[in-house]
Amino acid sequence: MSAVRITNGKVLDPANGEAATLRDVVVVDGRVAAADAAPANAETIDAKGGIVMAGAIDIHSHIAGGKSNISRLLMSEEQRAIREPKGEFCGCGGGLSTMTAHATGCRYAEMGYTAVFEPAMVASNARHMHAEMADIPFLDTGGYLVLGNDDKLLDFIATGASQQEVNDYVAWMLAATKTMAIKIVNPGGINAFKFNQRKLDLDEQNERYGVTPRKVLQTLVKAVKELGLAHPIHLHGCNLGVPGNEQTTLDTIAAAEGLPLHLTHVQFHSYGTEGDRKFSSGAAKIAEAVNKNPNITVDVGQVMFGQTVTASADLMSQYRNRGIATPKRWLGMDMEMDAACGIVPFEYKDKNFVNALQWAIGLELFLLIEDPWRVFLTTDHPNGGPFTTYPHLIKLLMDRSFREEQFARLNKAARKASNLLEIKREYTLEEIAIVTRAAPAKILGLTDRGHLGAGAVGDVVVYREDKDREAMFQKADYVLKDGRVIVKDGEIVDLVYGRTHQVAPDYDKSMDSKMDRWFDEAMGYKAKTFRLSDDEIRGGRGTVRHQTVRAS
Amino acid sequence: MTDQASGGVTHEDVVCPFCGLGCDDATLKVSGEAVEAGEGVCGRAAALFRRGPEPAPSARVNGRDVPLDVAVSAAAELLAGARSPAYAGLGADVDGVRAILKLAAKTGGSVDHYASPGLYKNLASSQRKGWIATTFAEVRNRCDLFVVVGPDPSKAFHQLYSRVTPKTGRFLTGPRKVVFVGGEPTAEAKAQLDGSTVETIPVPDSGLVDAMSRLQALVAGQAPVAGAPDLAPLAEALKSAKYAVLAWSASSLGDDGDLVVERAVSVVDALNVSTRAACLPLSGKDNLTGAYHVSLWTTGFPLRLGFRDGVSEHDQSAYSTEAALEDADILVWTSAFRPEKPPSSDAQIIAIAHPGTEFEREPDVFIPVGQPGLDHAGLVFRADSVVGLPLKKYRDAGLKSVAEVVTGIAEAQP
Quick one: which of A99, B190, B217, B286 is 20 to 30 A from A130 by CA? Predict the structure, then answer.
């Protein structure tokens, strides 16, 4: 039996209604246990002056796969400038917006994150992504399967397939790629770009299939509901980054018709067209719609100033953005009748009107959306900025005077265009615990994560209480992964690996032969080659398979 | 898998790991240690899969047969005293490459793949400027005009046209057009292209850069530059194609291959302003693509790595195998897919290699290893960079994988 007792800390566990309760947290054999479950000789961690929270969860961070490698390739200056020093537990990686797999695990763990989910697993690239994610230490991971631009699904919809058949297809694809949720990126738009359409609004038809983004969205929202996946459709909507897309976003919320829908990096989808420059904040309208529609959750995709790289499956949008690449290089790729990717390096500047307003729009969204259980802290790493900026972002949310100081540095026209100074709200520590732990666990259906009740995984973090919230969240005093101390005084002290989360809802086995035929005819290789086997995930060890309504 | 009267076993739908096309309809007949390739295997792969009935050779140290653990210890000892090891070959699956990078981080030294020269001709464009690329299934279904730039890549990618540009495609409305610029299709290529319209545009020797420059000017609507051959008809065809693809195998391009690639990328760039087009840069053999990916996610750099004090750096010239061997005292050669000879040098040699390798000079340590996709399971990447190929085990000849051997050497390090 291994046991750890964390004593003298204030436990902040909103999922269980604990707001800074002085109690011991006991982890026995990798799980949180009752206070009296630990033997007297258990390892004791004195957390005096510390806040104890569950391991943080990042619901949306691009941490692996072909697009990450292309980003590393394009950002060679960053790679040369930032090298990870040799250490007993560290590899030889580096980077910031384009960290290596090893560095990704280290930097997240030091901040108290123990689960990070890859939100854009393109099916044809799934094998690569899983292999790479297995090399990220410390973190539990999982992928959201990108659907909605795959020719097979559009063909099903265009030829009038039943919802049942679509559900079977979705379940088949989830099983084949070992993924845990469904992501849609620019529904049908990436596909339309392959047929040379340059934009696709919510009710505009893909010329080849005659299918609209609304139809794609509604079909997959229904599939998720009927298959009983915990996580709603994770949607990167139409018209990313386009001024005026606030209306698309409002229409998209309405299109969900009350069913659960997660809008990701909603900051990039909250733009109006007011003012001299025809670019304005739509945050108030979007926040109001989110507040009114309890079926909607969002993550923000906050923009943080500095050099980063934008990596997206949305080649239609990235092609549009290629001209603003900094440095001047970008790479796009159409992928396997499946999706695409576009990688555009970019530097967000506080003196640039658009970038400054993007920054303000993100914060307005965070502060105007009332229910912290329905908003999650993300920068859409690396697209809005690297995840290492989270402590700074937390300080912006918690400390109004700091926020106003930062605001004062912005481009003057952007300041005039933003209502940020009128918003007095400051996030509480408890709200930070919700948006980084309890709420992401809830929306992903991870019942044993994001809290510190008995039975939860033994991922526990101790932060030293500090009025400077950026300093507080930068480096944790202690981080436990499955009950093992992996970070002490902000430094990595052990090397452990997490698990991969997936779902496998049942499907009608007639889909097997349909997919065999599709692969033979259209894809040019065999469906059985495409399908990942269990032993390809972390060498057959370390899979967590979650229950779904249509259980396998 | 079926039992044969002869006592052998026939395995169907075997994934071929060699060139990177990812054919997965190969048949292997395995009888004891012996292997014969059957249907679905191109001639080149059949030769590489073939094994005789004789048992695998023993490991050797200084030419003498030794048990595996003795060879592993000898390798570890040599590396412990090494001043500047060069890790070369790198013909290994993803796990093998992972293990080599870990060992190199420990011992220091350079890392490169033996088929990488073509990769850097591509990176000169993709890394510095970027491009719009595509993958096999997109080409198969969408590409109505397939332009082969330079020598016919099917010399290296045997079944290229039957797999990537077959007669029919889902979105094609007529026969596919295939144009060879500065190259000549082989007879076999022509047979594979039956049903497509094939055209050849000869280009004078070393005139490919010039031809592609003129093509770029034409498609971009710039003032045409006079020259032969006349590329105006091709430019018009490209502009009116729905999804044109420019394909090349950089390793078969000449010394100015980086410039050819750069011009081809510019052609695609110009086309995409009004229609759709993409590049298909075919990458190298023996999991070069996989090694490139593992290198990027592990170190942030695309191979040609130098490790010092556990920190890696990247230099395309200094850490090429050729340059590294000028200074290396030990060459650690890995080649699990084929009996590729290590390059000549004055360095001592640790060869973690195909059992059939014939050496010019007996290595100081020789450890025979199994082939991924025959002797053990593994992961390699397809030549279009996106798709990973799962390889299986089909026989047990007592051969360890590169990953097992290299991890053993790393663990035996003092």
Answer: B286
